[in-house]
Each structure stands twice: as C-alpha cells, then as structure tokens.
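chain below, 95 aa
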Amino acid sequence: DLRIELLAGAIEQAKSLFGDDWAIAYNAPSVQTQCHVHLHVGKLIQGVETGQFITATKIEDIPVPPQGEGFWIHPQGNLFHVHTGEQITETVLLR
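prediction:
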C-alpha cells in the first residue's frame, strides 16, 4: 500500500510539473547515495524510450522491480511504460 501511495504521489507531482512529458526514476540500491527511499521526478528526455518495458494500465499494476534493479516509468497514452533492468535510471530525466 505504501509503494502505491508513493508512486501515486510522485506521478501526481510529475504531471503537475511536466504534463504528459513526465517520468519517474528510482536508482538501484547499489548506486544510491542517500539513505532514504526517494524517487526522481522530471521531464522525460525525448528519444530515450527503449523497446524493453512492461506495460501497466494503472498504478496498482506497476510491478515491483527485480531485487537490486532500478526502474523508470513514463506515460504512454493511458498506459504506463515501466522500464527495469538498469542501475542508474535518473539519466532519462532532463536536468
């Protein structure tokens, strides 16, 4: 329940800041430099989409990534594309 609440809050914030161009990134634990759970919220860099993603229809369907992996999420129409299998994921966000 807390994971869903965290994702929902981050997505709401991302939408309010970046409209449909938002993305959320979570770095793998092995590369994190802070001692608390946090998500990076930002604008998705154009052209970073890969063909390796899981499609989720609602926040509750966003899967927990495999242990030790990071993930990034962005909208695709009314769906979410969830990318896993990476360590440093915040690099998909425009700085």
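The longest helix spans residues 2-18. The mean pLDDT is 94.
thats it, cya
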